[in-house]
Amino acid sequence: MATRWLTDSIIRDLRPPERGVTSTWDAPDPRGRQGWAAGFGVRVYAGGSKSFVLRYRSKTTRVEHLYKIGAYPDWNVTAARSEARELRLKIERNGDPQIDRQQSRDAPTMAMLCDRFVAEHVPKKRTATQRDYRSICENIIKPALGRRLVAAIATKDVEGLHADITKRAPFRANRMVGTLSAMLTLAVKWHMRPDNPCKGVKLNPENKRRRYLEKDELVSLTQALAKHEDQQAANIFRLLLLTGSRKTEVLSATWDQFNFVRNVWTKPASTTKDKRPHEVPLSSAVLSLLTTMRKAASDDANFLFPSRVGRAGYRTEIKKPWVAILKRAGITGLRVHDLRHSFASELVSAGFSLAVIGNLLGHSQVATTARYAHLYDDVAREAVNRAGARMVGLVAKPPTRGKKLEVVAGGGR
What we know:
By secondary structure, the protein is of the alpha+beta class. The chain has helices at residues 8-13, 77-92, 97-106, 110-121, 127-145, 155-166, 170-189, 215-227, 231-243, 247-251, 284-296, 319-329, 338-349, 354-361, 366-369, 376-390; strands at residues 2-4, 21-26, 40-45, 50-57, 64-72, 258-259, 264-267, 278-281, 395-397, 406-408.
């Protein structure tokens, strides 16, 4: 075992032993230069590799450790000696670098958090939400942050990932932050870290869609539904439009949810967005549709829209028929979810309040229903036009210069 003031040239010239390992320990600089660290040295292995190490005794366990700082030449002697001095200061404060490193290796990574999140938390969510969470975890979070320690994730990491995704998918970037925030909130609960770094991350602005069926579009859609070869799909779209329900609520609907004595549909908590049972009355149009469907269904039918494909037992894929129906109807820019918006717009046009509309749509927050408030502008305009038509006899002559506006009563009622 040799001791000498280590320099890069000395380390470069150290020859590997025929077998095993040799150690050379740092000694105070004979020229009086500062920076020496007790226990700092370099080990040379028979294979030719060289590593900087620190030998120390833990004040906590009283056990002697040999801590590897890093490999030469990835680390030069100046950087390694400086690191050794920092470690010495931690040891003097009762720290233990070896234990810290082991704890770091055992600490959960973001990939591990994703797996636990998907296994324990995601199954409690609706089917569509489960699918979205899993997709974001596997396709975004794991590839970008999977190897990082949960405790090491900072706000700047979340903002950086959000900015990167925003370049190609602004709304998806927001969904990613929402998913990541849910995960890290649970990480706090599971004692993996003390805080949630997603708090305060600025999201991209999102304008709520205001796409509704126009009157001529409704006629065209009705005709296209009648002509479509897949009438099971057509009935799905009819029920969506006539009830304003969410897609999952309709697709997973079972016959025992419908009470044809009281004429109500009781949606179970497992299918509603707010996880509460939701009872809605059935219109005569819906009852007529359901009666026709029930006559065509088998006696032992459970789901309204059964399917032999997949494990759910009911139909889940309706994209292709929707595209075909829109093409036949000559309608563009309409999503399946816009049928729900169209149902709400019809209620507004009929003069019903936002409270009634929110109850029928199953909204738990008034703010959610408030997105339809702008539709009252058209209702109000129609109201004043009707009032004006009844008072058409009141005319205002254009004022002449220097004269006041003259209103003349006519003979209309």
